[in-house]
Structure formats: structure tokens, C-alpha cells
Amino acid sequence: MTAKLSLPESFVAAGTAALMVGFSVMSYFDRTIMSIAGPAIIREFKLSETEMGTVYSAFILSYAVLMIPGGRWADRFGPRLVLTAMGLGAALFTGLTALGGRPGLGAYLGVVPAFALIRLGLGVSTAPLYPSCARMNANWFPESKRGRIWGFVAAGAGLGGAAAPPLFSRMIARYGWRASFWLAAAATAALAVAWHGYARDYAHEHPWVANLSEIPWPREAARVAPSRPGPTPWRKLVGDRNLLLLTIGYFAVAYFDYLFFYWIFYYFGEVRHIEPARTAFYTAGLFLTWTVMTPLGGWVSDRPVERYGPRAGRRLVAIFVLALSAVLLGCGTSVSRPGAAAALLSLALGFASSSEGPFWATAIDIGGAHVGAAGGILNTGGNLGGFLAPIVTPYIASHWGWSWGLYFGGLIMMLGVLVWFFVDPTKTVAPG
Predict the structure, then answer these.
(1) Domains along the chain?
(2) Is the CB of residue 97 less than 8 Å from the CB of residue 34?
(3) For helices 356-367 and 310-334, angle between their N-to-C axes, nearest 10 degrees
(4) Mean predicted lDDT score pLDDT of the chain
């Protein structure tokens, strides 16, 4: 008879967290590669910058609209099932992007409508990702570790964004942009299958867990399956002052981030006229900075929480890093030397990403039993900011220049700084 595999709960939890990081990596790889293929698509189909911005924003529109339902699905059906469906759906629409031009759907619908429709589908599929990860974070980890766990999950976004420019550029050069999208789709589908086989909604459900000493609910209740939350108190969640302020702040951060995600590759190559190899190198550097600084921000934000409590602890890191990111964006846009500009802009994005841990850990605290729904509301507000950035930035640039297109992102970020002075993470909407 084969012995049952038995491992410490913390080891199995680390594997669960690693797979969530993997989903974050592939999600940002899949959404960012459209901007890497963008210049070639613009030239091949003679599109304008504004038309391409519309294609970029289509993803963010459906992603934002389905965010709240996605969070509710995670609360109701469990994050394991919802993340599996998310991964398979994202793989499908990433692959279908290859059919957006001519020949393909673009021959029947028009190139811009076809790409926009496919990107809408990708947004629908991807929407439950981060609310489901927030639900998983609450299920598996205690409050004192949630900031750093979320920091690693958010760092996956930076790693995916960093890998996209050099890797997908080489894939396009070797296989063409159409085949490259199908290869990315295959990798995403493989990750979804691995997640479904390994993950469980709670530690006590996992067949490999040897003990339950570290789970976030009381030890004496460890043998009892936690119940699914009841009906979502939407009125209390949507009307909660602290969650509303947090969502406004996340709107500002996402606007700032998506400005980089969709236009920084174009900005380096087409506006600053940097050669393609250095453009890919600088863009990858930005996202590598994101990857390093995001978990650092989550870890740092957990330390003052342990010492000063969640209200002061979460605020300290968020206010400092958001203000600094706005200043660095202005400095990076103003300098003339490409290397100095890339370094300053990398730090601007890195410090902005450092706020991910405080934002999501606070949303988990506020949401209580309805973490998925609270995370959905937070990320909906964030992606409304992300929806506007790809459109507003080239519009401002066409009238007042690209420098002002970037400066405006810094002004928006200061709104994110302001709201943190009034957020109280200790006020839970629905204790669980």
C-alpha cells in the first residue's frame, strides 16, 4: 500500500502561494504582450495610436465590470474552482488574439472591433483573479502575514510584465505575433490545470497537510470546515466609507500603473527614439523593479502593523511610497538622458507597486467574511483608473505632448496619497 504524502501545513501553503504568484505572472504576461505586439499591429493594419489605445482599454473595461461578480463567485464557489475557470478562459482568449487581424475576424468585423471584442473576452475571463487570490489569502494565512503574501502575488504581475518585452519580442521575431499568442495561451492553460490539481480552498481540505497548527482560524475549531459566507451585504460594502476611500486610492494607483503597462514601451521606442533592443531592456527593467519592490512593500507594511496596529501601520508605508512615486515620475520625464530616465521611471513604478500589499491587506481586513466581494470592489475602482489611462494618456499627448501625458499620471497619484489619511482598516464591514 502506498503511504499518504504528509507535509507541514506551512509547506503546502507556500506551494499554494507560489501558484497564485504564477497566475499573477501569466496574467500580466498575457495582458502586456498586446502592447509588445502593438507597434507591429499598428504598422500592419495602419492603425492610429488612439485606435490602439481603444483596443488596450477594451480589456480593462470588461475586467473592471466583472470584478465584483468575480469576487462574489470566489466567496460562494471557492477560489480553487473560480481560479481554474479563470485560467482556462484567459488561455482561450489569449490564443484567439491571433485571429483578430486579417485574415481572421478582422476581415469580417474590422480590425479594431475584432481585437477589441477578443480583449473584452480576456477581461471577462481574468476578472476573478485577484479577488479570488484575496479570498485564498484570507483562508490560508493569518493577518500578520497577509501583506507580505499579497506583496508576492502582486510581484508576479511585475515579473510577468518584465518577462513580456524581451521574451515576446523574441517570440515575435522567430514565430510571428500570431503564433506567439497561441504559445502564451498554452502556458496559461497548463498553469490552470496544475492549480486545479494542487490547490484546495482551505488547509484542512488538502490531502497533503500533516497538521493544522498555523491556519488563521482558532485551533480548537480546526477540525470543523469553515462555512461559506451568507448573502453579500452589498449595501454595507458599497456604502462603507473606508472601502470607498481605499477604492478611490486604488483608482489612482491603477491609472498610474496602466500608463506604464501600455505606453512605456511605445514611449521609449517611438517618442524618445531609443533602439528596439534598449527599449525592451529598459521596459523589462521597469517591471523587474516592480517585482522586487512589491513584496518588499508588503513585508515592510506588515512590520509597523505588528508594532503600531493596522491603522497607523498600513498608512505609513502607503503614503510614503505613493508620494515618492509621483515625484520620481516627474523627474524621470524631465531628464534628457535615456538611461537616467529609465532608472527614475523604474523607481517610480517600483514605489507605486510597493503599495499593493497595504491596499489589499486593508481590503481583506475591511471585508471580513466577504473578502472576495470587498476585493472585487477595490479592484473595480482600480481598473476604472486602468481603463482611462490608455485612452487619456495619448489624448493629452496629442494636444500638449507626451511629457504632460505622463505628468498627469503623477497628479492623479497624489489623490491616492490624500485618501490614505482618512482610511481606517480596523473598521470591518462583516466580521467573519
Answers:
(1) 9-215+230-422 (1.20.1250.20)
(2) yes
(3) 150
(4) 82
